[in-house]
Amino acid sequence: MRKATYSFPTACAVVAVLALPATAQPAFEVDTVATGLSNPWAMAFLPGSDEMIITLRGGDIVILNPDSGAMQPISGAPNVDTRGQGGLLDIAPAPDFTQSGLVYMTWAGRVDGQNSTTHLGRARLDREANALVELEVLHAVSPAVNSGAHFGSRIVFSDGHVFAGFGDRGSKDFGPNHISQDLTSENGAVIRLTLDGDIPADNPFAGQDGTAGAIWSYGHRNIQAMTLHPDTGDIWLAEHGEAGGDEVNIVQRGGNYGWPLAANGVTYRGGERFAAPHQDGDGFISPAHVWPAGRDDHFPPSGMTFYTGDAFPDWQGHVLIGNLLHQYLGLFSENNGTLEPVARLLDGAGHRIRDVAIGPQDGFIYVLADGNNAPLMRLVPRS
Ligand SMILES: [Ca+2]
Q1: What's the whole-model pTM score?
Q2: Would residue 1 count as lying in a domain?
Q3: Per residue in 63-85, pLDDT tens?
Q4: Residue 2: inside a domain, yes or no?
Q5: Distance between Cα 47 and ligand 1 center (Å)
Q6: Residue 203 within any structural domain of the chain
């Protein structure tokens, strides 16, 4: 395993005061909670504690106290394959974390020879030993592929099950045999498993010949965000398109989300269309929101969450989505499954955004940047 390096954080410091554009948005300050994170990918607050757990793509895990800035490395992370976009990816405490201490993770791992795939596993956090112990691989996405691209991935818990979303491994076969349209392939899909990693008998394709029973929805390109709607309980996800065509989707059981047969993006080279854009009646589930083709407009998403805290009352029920390429945190209003852009937060601050979370106690907006010397920031209302 290749280990990344990281440094310990400095104490919290207010580094900038940003006011939003002239609309009636609340002003906020940006605290730097920690600095020096080496390619962080995901963060989650640990229920029953003041701490958060953060993955570093190179294969390390740290626990951070966001108020003191104290950071503790945690041993026992899985072995990861860091080629390309691989490495240690998402992390999420189990629904019964306060009793079980279990955390679920996804990562890119080598399977055989040059072939790698996204793994879903869990381990128990022994906080006194600063270790993850009893690591179990619950599922390895099939088939493994010789590619360093598009591993996904995110984890959410719903309905007593674990859901995880994956990518298409960068396949450029834009026809009907694409890996995301192949029901024997779990790439480019959302899967649903029991918390122990078994395939539930009531999954849409379970028990059918020529299908992978773990699949819940398919026809996705590269899922980078998954979160639950706070009122409906629906799973929302965000996925990267080709050049443009980035999408937010509301996940339906057995749904086909169209990639690459319906796509609003264009090819990276030359910018030509390779598929009809999503449209009603095409047999695919249209996105809740789609960004158009064109490199200046597109919105390669990272983490996504609904705002549910008390610190920014005007933003209750709004959606926050990180934008990697254009380096801001998008704020959107949501109404009956449609999004409207409201503001670009942290625009001009110079950070690719990797993940976003709401502090369960303080309601502050925690924003994890991307990069080899990345900060964790939080947005705090300006008093
Ligand atoms: Ca789609």
Answers
A1: 0.93
A2: no
A3: 999 999 999 999 999 999 999 99
A4: no
A5: 34
A6: yes
CA of 247 to the centre of ligand 1 (A): 7
154-168: burial string, b at 16+ Cβ within 10 Å, e else? bbbbeeebbbbbbbb
Question: pLDDT band at residue 10, thresholds of 50, 70 and 90?
Answer: very low
Give per-residue pLDDT as tens, 207-223.
999 999 999 999 999 99
Burial of 325 from C-beta contacts in 10 A (0-12 / 13-18 / 19+): middle
Instruction: Determine which one of 119, 139, 150, 278 is catalytic.
Output: 150
pLDDT above 60 (res 357): yes
Dist. CA 275 → ligand 1 center (Å): 11
For residues 35 and 359, give the distance between their C-alpha atoms in angstroms, rounded to a whole number: 18
According to DSSP, the β-strands at 319-323 and 301-306 are antiparallel
Q: What's the gap in Å between 20 CA and the centre of ligand 1? A: 32
To the query of whether residue 150 is one of the catalytic residues in this protein, the response is yes
Residue 16 pLDDT class (50, 70, 90 cuts):
very low
Instruction: Note whether residue 281 is domain-resident.
Output: yes
- Residue 371 belongs to a domain with what CATH number? 2.120.10.30
Q: Which domain range does residue 176 map to? A: 13-381
Please give the distance, rounded to the nearest whole angstrom, from the Cα atom of residue 261 to the centre of ligand 1.
Answer: 9
